[in-house]
Amino acid sequence: MLGALVAQKNLGIGAIGGKDSMSGTFGDLHVPPTFISFACSLGWAKNCISASFKSTNSYILQLHIPRDRYNMPDFEYLKKAYKLLEGYIKAGLITSSYTIGYGGLSYAVAQMCIGNKIGCLIKTTAPLVENFGDILLEVQSTKQINVGIFPIIGVTRSIPTLTINKFSFELDNIIKATDSTLAEVFKSFENKDTTLSPLNLYKTKNIYVSKNKVAKPKVLIPVFPGTNCEYDMQKSFEKAGAEVKQLVFLNQNSSQIQEATQALAKEIREAHILAFAGGFSAGDEPDGSGKFIATVFRNELIAEAVEYQLRDGLIIGICNGFQVLVKLGLLPNGQIIQDPKCTLTFNTIGKHISTIANTMITSDRSPWLSNVNLGECYNIPISHGEGRFVAPTETLDKLLSNGQIFSQYVDLSGHPYVGSSPNGSLYNIEGIVSENGRILGKMGHSERFGNNVLQNICGKKNQKLFEAGVLYFK
């Protein structure tokens, strides 16, 4: 704690919080002495860089801070070097960086390697100790870098190994060792099944244009207990040029439910687009999510309003919204039915998944898909516990031949291997459309796209679904 105070005084930065824990024992629980500090700083998101190496044949530099006999850093040197580094980052000269701390240089380099599985060759005579405050950097060129302060200690390369002086380690072994520590607690969803899922690139001959042109289409987002993506969806539609209204479905008593039902039916009839946002409906109710919302929409008054809205309107459902559309039978049938053959069930890994999924556009049979091209791959965020699409084989084959499967999970090379589906969806299904194309549902959160979001994720991320939905009415 005294060392932390010295750092605060020399850097002119105050602590914002902390947590201490006295050692002790309670039953079978043993608490080690612990001190945790929290620190943060202000900066522009556009200047943020991630830790993983970005390319091969780039240079690895190390900023080393001199220390005194008590192993305390030279703070004046540190501040000048950090200021210089800040300028390099703003100029776009630094592609990745990692602070050396626990584990020393070898641990830091390993973390930079395994992100994108890029190997490296390090040659250094410095001790591989925990020099807190030292920073590793990746640059494409050293022409504008002061290599006296930031000397070159290595290069990145395509060989998937981490080599420091005469010691070499396979990256796969490093990853395996890293993951194995908590493997029993955090199960991996890695599936090495290289069986190809059925694939059909379907090019529609239809031209999708609304009969009722409007300058600013009205979008209705119903909000239920557990909905949590309504603001992201509203922002996406408004950015695309739509007028958006949220309707909170109050359900604390029978009177509220009756009033909310009537209000919802009225708003659906007046909307051009009905949008179901993601979330965890009623906490992802037991034995399947989305059932509460589906029950509400089976109400005769609301079901009739949906039928009316679908005469020339559009519907979209993302994540929990997709689950609702499938539970109702609106997907893939295009209408509310009693016994849907399709469902979205628990991920094969048996737990919630939050990651970036690589998906391919395999059909354009929908006005929602006017801004994408067949075969394009997109990196889309997913976050769900029940995203596994299942249906009878005959139903799946019909969806495939009809071009109703518009998005499938693929690997980084664009192959729809069974193992590339993070949730175990049959036919690697990420999203489908109704036969007339007016209803679209998908598990990936396409609305979670914006400035300074997913900066460290390469590839295409904006499918422009919301722009396409608005364009349909122009």
Report on this structure:
The chain is of the alpha+beta class and 474 residues long. It has two domains: 48-177, PurM-like C-terminal domain (Phosphoribosyl-aminoimidazole Synthetase, Chain A, domain 2, Alpha-Beta Complex); 218-449 and 459-472, Class I glutamine amidotransferase (GATase) domain (Rossmann fold), CATH 3.40.50.880. The protein has twelve helices and 22 strands. It has helices at 2-11, 75-90, 104-114, 171-180, 230-239, 254-270, 291-297, 300-309, 320-328, 330-333, 393-402, 465-471; strands at residues 17-21, 24-26, 29-31, 34-38, 59-63, 94-99, 119-122, 135-139, 152-157, 161-164, 167-170, 218-223, 243-248, 273-276, 314-318, 343-345, 353-361, 377-384, 388-390, 405-409, 429-433, 439-442. The strands form five sheets. Strands 13-12-14-15-22-21-20-17-18 form a nine-stranded mixed sheet, with helices on both faces. α7 (291-297) packs across α9. The mean pLDDT is 92.
Structural class: alpha+beta
Count up the helices.
12
- First-last Cα distance: 63 Å
Largest sheet: 9 strands, mixed
Number of domains: 2
Q: Strand fraction band?
A: 15-25%
The CATH superfamily title of the largest domain: Class I glutamine amidotransferase (GATase) domain
The count of strands amounts to: 22
Observed structural traits:
474 residues, alpha+beta, Phosphoribosyl-aminoimidazole Synthetase, Chain A, domain 2, Rossmann fold, 2 domains, 7-stranded mixed β-sheet, 12 helices, 26% helix, elongated
In summary, what is this structure?
With 474 residues, the chain is of the alpha+beta class. It contains twelve helices and 22 strands.
